[in-house]
Automatic annotation (TrEMBL):
It comes from the Eukaryota. This is Reverse transcriptase.
Length: 199
């Protein structure tokens, strides 16, 4: 889409360099006239696009006019940021845990009461039925956690797991402490394509 022919602009520059005032004025007037014609033509084209309800071509034209280019997704090689994220998310990790390690490698460590409790233990109790209901509500298509246990497994074994997990949760509430194995995390980066809102 060329709005102005380069011929008129070049003729104007040549006349200016040669010092020919009459030819320069004539070239300038011709160029201004062509600019007005191009503006009117483009305005009619935009009106037509709006009247036929074609927003895609309107956005395409606006992108061309403003020279807007969709930025390509790029990753920044920032070593310090990677280290900070790694330290934050993996601060509870042990060397033996891998992202897809079988659950036999996980051991529930006995919880010890804190030396000086900051507040009295809560009276909140989690029932076995509450835990069972939560396990049964797990979505089958969700990804497994860092321990490799899938939501399908939790749903299927909800009756067997409810008792032991209710004990673990209640013990955690009594001690006001979260077991270390619950704080494990696995970060798997998945770069996403950016979508421009205007398209």
């Amino acid at each position: 889409m060329v709005i102005l022919p380069d011929i008129f602009g070049q003729a104007k520059e040549d006349a200016f360099r040669n010092g020919d005032r009459v030819l320069y004025n004539q070239a300038r007037n011709t160029l201004n006239k062509e600019i007005r014609v191009a503006k009117r033509s483009y305005a009619k084209k935009l009106e037509n696009q709006f009247s036929v309800n074609d927003p895609a071509s309107v956005w395409k034209g606006l992108k061309y006019i403003t020279n807007y280019k969709t930025p390509s997704p790029s990753t920044e090689a920032n070593q310090q940021l990677a280290e900070d994220l790694n330290e934050f998310y993996c601060r509870f990790e042990t060397a033996g845990l891998t992202p897809h390690a079988p659950s036999e490698h996980l051991s529930i460590q006995p919880l010890t009461p804190p030396a000086t409790p900051l507040s009295p233990p809560p009276a909140l109790r989690i029932s076995e039925d509450d835990v069972r209901q939560i396990f049964l509500k797990q979505k089958k298509r969700k990804a497994p956690g860092p321990d490799g246990v899938t939501p399908v497994c939790l749903r299927t074994c909800a009756d067997q797991l409810a008792f032991i997990f209710s004990q673990i949760f209640n013990r955690s509430l009594e001690l006001c402490e979260v077991p270390a194995c619950f704080k494990r995390s696995t970060i798997t980066p998945h770069p996403k394509k950016t979508q421009d809102d205007r398209t």
